[in-house]
Amino acid sequence: MKINTQLDKILEKAWSDIPLNREDCKYLLTIDERSFESGLLRAAAASIVRNKNDNSAIILGQIGVDVTPCPGGCNFCTFGEDHTDFKESHLSDYELEEKIRDFCKYDDLYGLYLMTMHTYDLDRFLQTINKAKAHAPKTTQIWANVGDSSLDAFREMKKAGVTGVYHVCRIGEGVETKLNPDDRIQTMKNALDAGLELYTCCEPIGPEHTVDELVDNIFIGIELGITQHAAMRRVAVPGSPLAKYGQISELRLAHIVAVISLCSLTVPTMAYMGVHEPNELSYAAGANIITAESGANPRDNQADTSKNRGMDMALCRKMLFECGFSNIRKGDESKIPLDLDYLIKTDSLV
């Protein structure tokens, strides 16, 4: 079968480490995810990513440390103040320590996210960081997933031991949320100016979003200079206002993962590509980050997502093994061979 000339040229650019532009990205996103061309695109992205990183993947953990009815008011999030059933709560020291212990039992967690709502108490969050640093292995990086924050706030987090920040200017920001897109982007710049790594994502992707919307969102992170990019489909959480639109398939999500991988891997600081929620198709399309989750989760209506949508460490290891990765990297970039013996050792043959 003859390959489309435009696709052939774009893939040649990607193989040659030449940055793809917005028009390239737009064209790739118009390809039908059920087509031969999409299969070729996904295979190319996976091969390029794996070659760059010695066929390694990383496991992240995320702990939702605070729950409040959130003034961000995101129509896709279970915590939006206008539609949430959640009441304010905060993890106790014991609960935090227990969750960290579960994540870090075998010292193979690359990074630990501590997640708050959009508005949060900085002093309490800094205390949480200090507790996490005290209980996590030195090879596990501590990261923040917080609302819009000042440069000074990020400097305090860096001083406390945070390595990087997850932050996004989401699709529909300011329309499907009560937040200002300019504030979101400024927060991302604040994180970088504070000397922190920036992790972002094209999210939350729904069936109604256009290719142009996706391209604009993808290039926010590329143009700022991210260390991690990702794609996340919007979950149709019952009770959230956007649930009526449904959600895209995992195949479409994998196609988008492949496109973002090829468009962002030439960013000098870019190292890893994520997908939410984890699925095998996306790990065969360029993704090499998997996330175990516990505590509050904006895509879940359960108080502790580990009892519902969230994956645990054992399931994460098993999925990466089944998707053919050879190594798990720790936060210091050292590698652990991911083989059957390791799955047995870590009680991951689930």
Q: What fraction, in percent, of the residue positions are helical? A: 25-40%
Quickly count the helices. 12
- The CATH level-2 architecture is identified as Alpha-Beta Barrel
Distance between the termini: 40 Å
Tell me the count of domains: 1
Q: Under CATH, the topology is which?
A: TIM Barrel
Q: How would the blueprint of this fold be written?
A:
Blueprint: H1 5-15, H2 22-30, H3 36-52, E1 56-64, E2 66-67, E3 89-90, H4 93-103, E4 111-115, H5 122-135, E5 141-145, H6 151-160, E6 162-166, H7 181-193, E7 197-199, E8 202-205, H8 211-224, E9 228-233, H9 250-264, E10 272-276, H10 280-283, E11 289-295, H11 313-322, E12 327-329, E13 335-337, H12 340-345
Parallel strand pairs: 1-4, 1-11, 1-12, 4-5, 5-6, 6-7, 8-9, 9-10
Antiparallel strand pairs: 2-3, 12-13
Helix pairs in contact: 1-3, 2-8, 2-9, 3-9, 4-5, 5-6, 6-7
List the defining traits of the structure above.
alpha/beta, three-stranded parallel beta sheet, TIM Barrel, 350 residues, eight-stranded mixed beta sheet, metal ion binding, 13 strands, 12 helices, rSAM_sf
What does this structure look like?
- GO terms for molecular function: catalytic activity; iron-sulfur cluster binding; metal ion binding.
- This is Radical SAM protein.
- Keywords: Iron, Iron-sulfur, Metal-binding, S-adenosyl-L-methionine.
- InterPro entries: Aldolase_TIM (IPR013785), rSAM (IPR007197), rSAM_sf (IPR058240).
- There is one protein chain.
- The longest helix has 17 residues.
- The chain has one domain: Alpha-Beta Barrel (TIM Barrel).
- The strands form three sheets. Strands 1, 4, 5, 6, 7, 11, 12 and 13 form an eight-stranded mixed sheet that branches. Strands 8-9-10 form a three-stranded parallel sheet.
- The chain has 350 residues and is α/β, with parallel strands linked by helices.
- The protein is 38% helix and 17% strand.
